[in-house]
Amino acid sequence: MCSPGNRVHEHCTEFTSTSCVSCIDSTFLDEPNGLMKCAPCSSCDSGLGLRVKQPCKPESDDFCGPLEGFFCLLSNKDGCRIAQKHSSCKPGQYIRHTGTTSTDTVCSDCTDDTYSDGSLTACQSHTGCESLGLQEIKPGSPWSDSECGPQLSHSTARSSAVASMTVILAGAVYILVI
C-alpha cells in the first residue's frame, strides 16, 4: 500500500516491497491505496457557482466553495459541488435573512403603511405628508413611498379660482366686443 498523495510505481514481489511515487500534474489520492494511477483533480467550475477554497494537492482534491452571492446546494467531503445564486427580493418585499454560503436569502412582504424596493433589510414607513405640512399627491404602496407636494391653502385655492374666472370673463367680453 502507498500512503495518501502517492501511487504504486511497482507492486511488491516475493523479493521486493511496493515502490511508490508522488501524484503529480493536478492528480491526487486521498487514502492509502494500491493504485497505479492517481485521480485527476476536480475543477471548481464558476459556471456551477463555484470557486477554489483550497487548491488540489497530491493528497487532496480541490476544495470548492460557493462564489460571492451564491449558496451551496450540493456538498460532499471535498466541499461544495453545486451552488446557486441567492434569490433577490421583489419590490414590496424586504430581506428578512441575508443569504449565506449555505442558505438562500429569505424575503418577507411589507405590511400596512410600509414599503421596500426589494433591497432593504426592513420595510420603511410611508412618509406622512400631512405631518410635514404637505399634501399627499400620490399614496404610498408596498413598493414605493408616498409622494408629497406643497399644501394648497383655502386662500390660495380661492385666489386661483378668482384668477380663472377673471380670465374667462375677459375672454367673453372680448368675444362680445368683436
Automatic annotation (TrEMBL):
One of its GO terms (biological process) is defense response to Gram-positive bacterium. TNFR-Cys repeats lie at residues 22-64. It comes from the Eukaryota. Keywords: Disulfide bond. Disulfide bonds join C23-C38. Residues 22-64 form the TNFR-Cys domain. One of its GO terms (cellular component) is external side of plasma membrane. This is TNFR-Cys domain-containing protein. It comes from Coregonus suidteri.
